[in-house]
Write a structure and sequence with these properties.
EC 4.2.1.10, 5 strands, 3-dehydroquinate dehydratase, DHquinase_II_CS, 133 residues, DHquinase_II, alpha/beta
Length: 133
């Protein structure tokens, strides 16, 4: 399960110098073709509570969760606690190198509860996360 947080629905339009020009739907279609033996699902929400609800819903039945919580990474204790409360391993993913950006992006409430963290490789970060399961 790939779960994306706020503003990631704007990929392909939002700051292409940081996030690239491909929409996530276009990218998701490519990785589904590249990994035909992996059943991939995708969910995106700009609402923190909906992300927590989705983690609760899939966190006991999927083999892995790839989570890019966007800005909630740096603000949401609730998402961090949700990851701590589920059984499915979570890999935290970021398209950009968050340590190469504003200081507030250096803190993550997800990392302490994640299986691992992959950041800075563009959309390929998601592929590396798939390979980690």
């Amino acid at each position: 399960m790939i779960i994306n947080g706020p503003n990631l629905n704007l990929l392909g339009k939002r700051e292409p110098n940081i996030y690239g020009s491909l929409t996530f739907t276009e990218f998701f279609d490519k990785i589904k073709t590249k990994y035909p033996n992996v059943q991939l699902e995708y969910y995106q929400s700009n609402i923190e509570g909906e992300l927590i609800d989705k983690l609760h819903h899939v966190g006991f039945s999927f083999d892995g969760i790839i989570l890019n919580a966007g800005a909630y990474t740096h603000t949401s204790i609730g998402i961090g606690d949700a990851i701590k409360g589920i059984e499915t391993p979570v890999v935290e993913v970021h398209i950009s190198n968050t340590f190469n950006r504003e200081e507030f992006r250096h803190q993550s409430f997800i990392s302490p509860n994640a299986k691992g963290v992959i950041l800075g490789f563009g959309l390929q970060s998601y592929e590396l996360a798939i390979q980690s399961f």
